[in-house]
Amino acid sequence: MPENEITPESVYLNRRDFIKASAAVTAFSAGLVTGCAPGSEDVFKARPEINLTPLEKELYPAPRTTRYKMDRRLTGEEVAANYNNYYEFSEIKEDVEHHAQKLSTRPWQVEVTGLVHKPRTFDLDDLLQLFPLQERFYRLRCVEAWAMAVPWTGFPMKALLDAVQPMSQATYVKMTSFYHPFTAQGQLAFWQPWPYTETLTVQEAANELTFLATGIYGHPLPKQHGAPIRLVVPWKYGFKSSKAIQKIEFIDYPPMTFWNTLQSLEYGYVANVDPGVPHPRWPQTKEKMLGTGEIHLTQMYNGYGKFVADLYA
Fold first, then answer.
1. Cβ within 8 Å of residue 58, ≥6 positions away
2. Cis peptide before 107 (omega within 30 of 0)
3. In the predicted structure, residue 28 carries a pLDDT above the cut 60
4. Spatial distance between the Cα atoms of 6 and 2, rounded to a whole number of angstroms
């Protein structure tokens, strides 16, 4: 059997949930035909509530900045909440929201280390209080050729850099996500390079667009979006945006990253949105907006060239 036809272990482990869900959908469909919906309460479960701490109640929603203009309609929150790439929990996008609820996001710490003058471990509340939160409307473009437009809440990564003061020899910023394989069953796939790692150059990390998000749609991040803190770099493909970050390390060499290690021909190291660079599975010249199905031509740097093009001159 060709290797690309082998069922991933995470899908195999999810088979029971899939069979139960399929049976529930079948029952619900039959109910619609007969005018009732037997078992519908099992098919459509309420979205998990986000319980805000007293501090979060003070901080959300955050003031909105108008510097970064949005040229698309915002993606509906319900749509964005139920369509997520998060292989730690599932390779099926619509299942991520359910499985991600297993991850405990409080207490949470982010260790900043490496080639910095002031290494520090931040508690989540430290980050929320030290760095003023703001809301930004950004577009996100996936290498799979779908896109969305969402309001993120967080703070510029440059504020974090200013606080820890990188040394002159630091050239890259490596971000490492959580590693809890018995909570996130996707991490039981031992042949994949868990935990998830991604990297930016120090110059990219200091760019004004680079954002550490703690919220979305005016409230703290739900777990499927990468709670409690994730990276947002709107001019790069979505896989560069590390979720549930626990460690940020400043180094003087280009480190290995998750997807580039697995499939370097499909997931470039720099991963800037570029319609002129072909992909073996998804044409990159166009993109489809989630929720509306609108088709748009893909823009170089995802339309953010005036902010970032000089990084690659």
1. none
2. yes
3. no
4. 7
Q: pLDDT digit string (tens) for 113-158?
A: 999 999 999 999 999 999 999 999 999 999 999 999 999 999 999 9
**Quick one: 20 and 126 in the same domain?**
no
pLDDT of residue 9: 52
Helical (H) or strand (E) element with 155: strand 146-156
- Bond into 228 cis (ω within 30): yes
Q: Report the CATH number that the domain containing residue 110 is assigned in CATH.
A: 3.90.420.10
CA distance 313 to 306: 12
16-25, 178-187, 202-211: segment of lowest average pLDDT: 16-25
Q: Tell me the residue range of the domain where 72 lies.
A: 53-312
245: tokens are 């970050």
Cβ atoms within 10 Å, residue 271: 21
CB 237 within 8 A of CB 141: yes
> CA 228, CA 105: separation in Å to the nearest integer?
6
- Residue 107 within any structural domain of the chain: yes
27 and 126 share a domain? no
Q: For the segment 32-85, what is each residue's pLDDT rounded down to a tens digit?
A: 333 333 222 333 345 677 789 999 999 999 999 999 989 899 999 999 999 999
**Opening angle at CA 175, ends 170 and 181, nearest 5:** 150
Q: What is the CA radius of gyration of the chain?
A: 20
Q: Total domain count for the chain?
A: 2
Q: Under 8 Å CB-to-CB from 235, ≥6 apart: which residues? A: 209, 272, 273, 301, 302, 304, 305, 307, 308
Evaluate whether residue 2 is within a structural domain.
no
* Mean pLDDT value of segment 269-292: 96
> Is 237 strand, coil or helix?
strand
Phi-psi region of 18 (alpha: psi -120 to 50; beta: other; left: phi over 0): alpha
Q: Is the pLDDT of residue 5 over 70?
A: no
pLDDT at 49: 77
pLDDT of residue 47: 63
